[in-house]
């Protein structure tokens, strides 16, 4: 079955070019040219990936990202003409998984989308386990976290960060290592995105956040007995 991408871009020529590349790479493409229509498509389509321009009419990409993240962990790639770190950080804080600055190569965008999907589908860590810590259980087959027997919605990157820490329990993992393993070597942001995701993870884990220890000046470590 083809993967479905919801492509949200108000510049029709850019949207057509991106769509053509994704179709050539065996994706099913659905398009929207504004934020409000994007949310309507999202509700009915259940896409595997959203590619989302930030500067759009009706609702900007940040607001669309925020609303999608309130109910779904679907992977999101943001597109923007701005290259400043502040915009990137805002996007990641809202739950975006990747960030591409215009102008960009559509071929590279497709490659980054495919790489993101492979990482989310469990490309480099073992799957099919129930990982328990305290009152929390991470089901790596279903990509599901339960805390106190209640499901907690994780974004794809939050899931990958938590899974990486658990599989390396007792080992200090640097921020740079987390960036390479979770975001990939092509990621051009800085390590603050790791701190942002750890903060969100701790908030969602509640009392079980005690298992994630900050190692000052280095990174993070997962401790089974916190």
Automatic annotation (TrEMBL):
Keywords, alphabetical: DNA-binding, Phosphoprotein, Transcription, Transcription regulation, Two-component regulatory system
GO (cellular component) term, any one: cytosol
GO terms, molecular function: phosphorelay response regulator activity; transcription cis-regulatory region binding
SUPFAM superfamilies noted in UniProt: C-terminal effector domain of the bipartite response regulators, CheY-like
Keyword check for Ligase: no
DNA-binding region location: 128-224
Domain OmpR/PhoB-type: 128-224
Superkingdom of the organism of origin: Bacteria
Modified residue annotations for 4-aspartylphosphate: 53
GO BP terms, alphabetized: regulation of DNA-templated transcription
Ranges for domain Response regulatory: 4-117
Pfam family for this entry, one: Response_reg
Coiled-coil regions, chain positions: none
Record's protein name: Response regulator
Species name: Paenibacillus monticola
